[in-house]
Write a structure and sequence with these properties.
Blueprint lengths: L5 H18 L8 H10 L5 E3 L4 H10 L8 E3 L12 H10 L7 E4 L2 H10 L2 E5 L5 H6 L6 E2 L2 H10 L8
Parallel strand pairs: 1-2, 3-4, 4-5
Helix pairs in contact: 2-7
Length: 165
């Protein structure tokens, strides 16, 4: 690994951010726009907590036509320490006026599961985008949704139903 000279650092970061902004748009899974709209219509406050930069998250939400549905967007630079520490999630919950017991955190990674556990917030695994190998990694987590429609039922029912074994 090479070390970057201090005078080159700003140029490197600017180039990275420029490329990241052009290439960083997340794929929106089928059913997600419907899920988000139905949750909002039901009165659910919505937020995003991510390890990405807030500007990138907001650009992705705008590109997907979903930004207007989220009350709060927290990127890695907004709260320290970042995920998997509970601080960003707890900040979002506070902003939304929720309690830990009334919040449901949806994630698709081990960092998300660790964040939810650290915050002591019910966490549901969004498993629809995971490969079979990754699903095997998460097999011990008890709350799963394999389709956005299943997630909708879990959140609206507030029951955090258990996945089939």
């Amino acid at each position: 690994m090479k070390i970057v000279a201090p005078h080159m650092w700003e140029e490197l970061v600017a180039t990275y951010r420029s490329v990241d902004a052009r290439l960083g748009h997340a794929r929106v899974f089928r059913g997600i726009p419907t899920l988000v709209r139905k949750l909002r219509h039901a009165g659910a406050p919505l937020g995003v907590v991510s390890c990405k930069r807030r500007a990138l998250i907001e650009a992705e939400l705008e590109a997907a036509g979903l930004r207007e549905f989220f009350d709060v967007v927290i990127g890695f630079e907004d709260v320290t320490p970042p995920k998997p520490a509970p601080d960003p999630l707890l900040a979002a919950i506070g902003y939304l006026g929720l309690s830990r017991s009334s919040a449901i955190y949806v994630g698709d990674s081990m960092v998300d599961l660790e964040t939810g556990r650290a915050a002591r917030v019910r966490t549901v695994l969004a498993a629809w985008g995971l490969s079979p190998e990754l699903r095997a990694t998460f097999r011990r987590h008890r709350l799963w949704a394999t389709r956005p429609s299943e997630m909708l039922a879990m959140v609206l029912n507030g029951n955090g139903h258990k996945r089939a074994a």
